[in-house]
Amino acid sequence: MNTRRFLVLLLLFPALAWGAEYTHTVGDHTYVARKSADCFEISEHAAAECVRHFFAESEQELETSFDSIRSRLVRDRELFEQTQAKWVAFKDSECEVRSVSAQAFSAPERQKALFVWACAAELNEQRVLQLKSLSLGCDSCLQ
């Protein structure tokens, strides 16, 4: 385990906890990750695989949540789509900023990708919660 990498990730992405856990077995030992920050306790190769697992799950959940709401909207559909497009642009920019510390690693491009995926998984999780809290269908709600 690269302790420095793990500590940096914990500082950058404190509360990632998305979907099903990820398991990786090496010899007699099985590593379990319940959130993407746990991925950095596994071997370097498995860490990338693990972070991608949480990223893919969060992307799917985000898409499902967006599509579910979008399909119920008539009057405010365009507004909702524009807002989501702006949120995606924010997510991309935010994750770019959060990944700057990857320059300190020996393989900065590889590390940057891991930081971006971990960041995106965290922000996707937050966005899904936001989407699920939207009020729909009432007089002063999205319709």
**Radius of gyration from CA coordinates:** 17 Å
Number of strands: 2
The whole-number mean of residue pLDDT values reads 84
H/E topology pattern: HEEHHH
Helix content: 55-70%
Domain tally: 1
**Largest sheet, strands/sense/barrel:** 2 strands, antiparallel
Number of helices: 4
Q: Which parts are unreliable, with pLDDT below 50 for 5 consecutive residues or more?
A: 1-18
Strand arrangement, major sheet: 1-2
Ends: how far apart?
A: 50 Å
**Basic shape:** elongated
Strand content: 5-15%
Structural class: mainly alpha
Helices and strands, with pairings:
Layout (H helix, E strand, L loop, with lengths): L2 H10 L9 E5 L2 E5 L10 H29 L4 H22 L9 H25 L11
Antiparallel strand pairs: 1-2
Overview of the structural elements:
The protein is built from 4 helices and 2 strands. The protein has 143 residues and is mainly alpha-helical. The chain has one domain (3-132). A two-stranded antiparallel sheet has the order 1-2. Strand 1 (22-26) and strand 2 form a beta hairpin. Helix 2 runs antiparallel to helix 3. The termini are far apart. Mean pLDDT is 84; it is low at 1-18.
